[in-house]
Amino acid sequence: FQEQLAAAEQRGEQRGEQRGEQRGEQRGRIAGIQQGIQQGIQQGIQQGIEQGIQQGIQQGIERGRREENRLILENLLQVRLGELDAKVALFIRPLSALSAADLTRLLVQLSALPVDENGVRLAQELLAEHVLRMYFESGDERLTNLVPSLLGLSVDDLEVLLSQLPELSVEELLGRL
User: Fold this and answer.
1) What residues contact 168, with CB distance under 8 A and at least 6 apart?
2) Which has the closest alpha carbon to 81: 34, 44, 113, 129?
């Protein structure tokens, strides 16, 4: 009987150890999984913050560049032509997105305009044509023919149309003008 009791105790101890090990391993796995999930969440948050900061910096730089371009264009036109009329002012904002090379070419063209009423008219035409060429195929001659119609719009209608240009095709623009 003593031998059976000792054997039963030994089996009980072994089973207890096995169960303890299994439970310990299971708890360890659960703790490891939880720790892994927590680390993954923290890494994801950190990456999101870093990407957000980088994207914010890039957007800020782009906004600053556009604002600087707008001021340069606006100042040149005011110096050359005096007070800017509402139509000229409407064309300045989209043109502020031009690349440095394209903006420089436009500034050179504007600086060559006469300083009189004819210069104001030519500036309006030049600005209108550049805005159209920003959004549409630059080789399309129909764009040049649209400039007088575009300039014939009221200030309110012109403002609406300029805001819609990025979504329009040339055919849709032709239909509206």
Assistant:
1) 135, 176
2) 113
d(CA 156, CA 141): 26
Rounded CA separation 20/66 (Å): 68
User: Pseudo-torsion of CA 117, 123, 124, 129, nearest 10°?
Assistant: 150
| Cα–Cα dist 111/79, whole Å | 10
Tokens at 17, concatenated:
């150890």
pLDDT on residue 94: 93
Token pair for 177: 């003008």
Residue 58 in tokens: 């890039």
Q: Which residue has the tokens 């009980």?
A: 12
Q: pLDDT tens-digit profile of 126-140? A: 999 999 988 887 667
Q: Give the whole-angstrom CA distance, residue 120 versus residue 6.
A: 111
Cα separation of 137 and 169, whole Å?
Answer: 10
Terminal Cα-to-Cα distance of the chain (whole angstroms): 109
> How many other C-beta atoms lie within 10 A of the C-beta of residue 173?
20
- Tracing tokens 């003008």 back to the chain, one arrives at 177
| 137 and 170 Cβ atoms separated by less than 8 Å | yes
**Average pLDDT value for residue range 130-154:** 84
The residues, any chain, with a CB within 8 Å of residue 84's CB and separated by 6 or more, are 74, 77, 78, 92
